[in-house]
Amino acid sequence: MKILVGYKRVVDYNVRIQVKPDGTGVVTDGVKLSANPFDDIALEEALRLREKGVADEVVVVGIGPADLTAHLRNGLAMGANRAIHVQTADAVSPLTAARTLLKLVEKEQPGLVILGKQAIDDDANQTGQMLAALWDRPQATFAGKVEIADGKAKVTREVDAGLEVIEADLPAVITTDLRLNEPRFIKLPDIMKAKSKPIDVIELGSLGVETADHIKTTHYAAPPKRSKGVMVKDAAELVAALKQKGLL
Amino acid sequence: MTKILVIAEHLGGKLNGSTARAVSAAAAVKPDAIDVIVLSDAPDAVAAEAAKIDGVSKVLTVARAENAQSLAAVYAPQIVKAAAGYTHVFAPSTTFGKDLAPRVAALLGVSQVSDVMTVEDPHTFKRPIYAGNAIVTVEVDASSIVVATIRTASWPAAASNGSAPIEAISVDAALPSHTRFVELQQGKSDRPDLQGAPKVVSGGRGVGSKENFEIIYKFADKIGAAVGASRAAVDAGYVPNEMQVGQTGKIIAPELYIAVGISGAIQHLTGIKDAGTIVAINKDGEAPIFEIADIGLVGDLFKILPDLEASLG
């Protein structure tokens, strides 16, 4: 079985995001970029399934500008067999990403597609569900545990009410939650090895994808700040302060 | 004509409070009609609750055996059929809505507006990105149907004084059998629901162990609060995942939030930004939680919580 893994590049999760003063975007110049943490988890899960013998090939997919290749090399260094770089200079909406992935799915015929549940830049949380819808296949979002056997995926999902277990026929789309696994670190020899692994570069325009641009972002703003509060010295003072606010 | 279809979230024959919050957001659009749709094998009790929500014009029910569990792959084709004639489809931004709404949007051929915080006009919304570190204004094409999830912490629950009519409808949609529900593992609790509770007490890594968490439960029960936890406490196995508050857990807006032994990682703060009053109790006076707390108390939680209980009598 082949597994396709979405591998998006985002502003590193440790970076404190600053909104540009003119409200046209966030500052990304000179900011550290890394793999979306949920996508690292997706890749790790795919690699573990390959190591268990459930899968025989793991393909990482990125959609983005020419310099995304270096990022995809990290996915190869982590252990993916090969990479597909769908090249575009434009920002890509979740629906466009899903339509693009569908084209690759039709070509590659994977048994499983694993994506992060959301990217930590736009926090959209849409692409996996959209791909599953367009592909007319099962979706198992927010996965905390994945078991594959007999052409089926048994997935434990982290939902608001607790843990939901569903069973999905393959092929299917799984999106990862934080507790699914802890991604491995990339070792130096793996970086060297990754240099000889193949990366297919495809122009987005050549895939015949109808881009979806129904939603335009017109303004960026910093969130309202909470003002710094007061310190109390003991439990009695705290109770008095809360009673004064009518909260106890 | 602006007509909004709100997808009801429910479990075990009870309407989830997130639905009334999504109705509040729908009302902010000032539409001509807000209809709530209930998909279930036995929708009557849930529909009766939904009919009471202020501002609801009509409740639509789709009763099918396949709707016994809320599987997105099963619900989505039915919502798509039912959405004909509507200008907007709203769902709460809970794990239920986040799972379902994008599947609906894709089938309708549109992108989705995730986590609506404010409604500027029927096609313009504000939503958070970068874990709430930036707020963007987005405009949806006037000619497109708007599919959106509603950030429940940003909206009050609409009151329940209404009496909207209930109408059973049938939708002609082929339903897949490729996805099947197995089970739901739920922590049993008599405490208030974390997402809707006016008071929440959360514990973090500073609590130290699963056993020590009893002190959090005990204090929460004393003041009638729901109990939450930081990601660190969940990852350490002190409490189950459904108690996690933060960017990747639950985003909540109680009137009173008491953070106990929580340092205040940005991921956690994202989940509590809209709380009315934030109280922080931590032994480290330099902890980031004190930057956003309205009231801070530096000290040993194992001494302070019993003191608080004693002060409350």
TrEMBL record, chain A:
Pfam families: ETF. Residues 23-211 form the Electron transfer flavoprotein alpha/beta-subunit N-terminal domain. Keywords: Electron transport, Transport. The keyword Kinase does not apply. Signal peptide: none annotated. PANTHER family: ELECTRON TRANSFER FLAVOPROTEIN BETA-SUBUNIT, ELECTRON TRANSFER FLAVOPROTEIN SUBUNIT BETA. Belongs to the ETF beta-subunit/FixA family. This is Electron transfer flavoprotein subunit beta. It comes from Luteibacter flocculans.
